[in-house]
TrEMBL record:
Belongs to the binding-protein-dependent transport system permease family. InterPro entries: MetI-like, MetI-like_sf. The chain crosses the membrane at residues 68-92, 104-127, 133-156, 192-218, 238-260. Residues 69-259 form the ABC transmembrane type-1 domain. This is ABC transporter permease. It comes from Ferrovibrio xuzhouensis. The lineage of its organism: Bacteria, Pseudomonadati, Pseudomonadota, Alphaproteobacteria, Rhodospirillales. Gene3D superfamilies: MetI-like (1.10.3720.10). The keyword Cell inner membrane applies.
């Protein structure tokens, strides 16, 4: 018995060490920009000699960077609304189809995430150019919505498969129309998946670079595209500050979702 415990402990250690090394390898470059962002507006230093907020002040005082940030927020919010509304509608429609048709249409809807991004970007550019959508904020919303909607369909569709349909049938038998049934019966049961898919849609749009490079044009550059241009043509010292802000924004979006999920799981265990 003692020998088995020792072997089990050694196995756990043997698995934990490579896992910790891989985790460190993946997160170290991301976390390294945080201390770098507190350096002075000069050469980039991993551990700044004289910590300051110069990079942040330069970023927030720059009209060009603020314009790019505002365009990114606009596009991400519009993408979140479009992808969530159409993704939920598609998931609801798919849930009412037979298994064969559902699998076929599921594959069609997730194609934008399967096809290489550069292929989708070229195709979107050629189509949007005919409709004069290249260089417009609305064009960016449409392109990003196509990329984000598959996540909404998958997340919400997964929640709908575990839905208690007897409650929906009871609501309709009592005279409620489909809209009231959705908002009062279906939505409370899928709200966590809905919130999670909306946050993913926002994050996908906010971080998208390849498609945005083709669609944005000259006057609709988002923050990631402006960062890309800065890396290509000049290494500006405020890049670590921008990266830190993006990381903190992502954490601020995901943390409430994780806390809500933990609370729901705890509530379910106590029932």
């Amino acid at each position: 018995m003692k020998y088995r415990r020792i072997m089990a402990s050694l196995c756990r250690i043997a698995v934990a060490i490579p896992g910790a090394l891989v985790l460190f390898f993946l997160t170290a470059p991301v976390l390294a920009v945080i201390p770098m962002s507190f350096g002075a507006a000069g050469p980039l230093q991993l551990i700044p000699d004289h910590p300051s907020f110069d990079q942040y002040s330069r970023f927030f005082s720059s009209p060009d960077w603020m314009t790019a940030l505002w365009i990114s927020v606009q596009v991400a919010l519009g993408t979140t609304c479009l992808a969530t509304v159409f993704g939920v509608a598609a998931a609801l429609g798919l849930s009412r189809l037979s298994a064969r048709w559902r699998l076929l249409l599921d594959a069609v809807l997730i194609l934008p995430r399967i096809v290489p991004t550069i292929v989708f970007a070229v195709a979107a550019y050629s189509v949007f150019l005919k409709f004069h959508l290249v260089g417009s904020v609305f064009g960016l919303m449409l392109a990003h919505s196509v990329l984000a909607m598959p996540f909404v369909v998958v997340f919400v569709g997964s929640a709908l498969r575990g839905l208690d349909h007897s409650l929906e049938e009871a609501s309709r038998s009592l005279g409620a129309n489909p809209a009231i049934t959705f908002f009062r019966v279906v939505l409370p049961q899928i709200r966590l998946s809905l919130i999670g898919s909306a946050l993913f849609a926002f994050n996908i749009s906010f971080d998208e670079v390849v498609v945005t490079l083709f669609i944005s044009g000259v006057y609709s550059k988002t923050l990631p595209v402006k960062v890309w241009d800065a890396i290509q043509y000049e290494v500006t010292p405020i890049l670590p500050a921008i990266s830190t802000l993006v990381i903190l924004t992502t954490l601020a979006l995901l943390l409430p979702l994780l806390l809500l999920r933990q609370r729901l799981d705890t509530t379910a265990k106590h029932r």
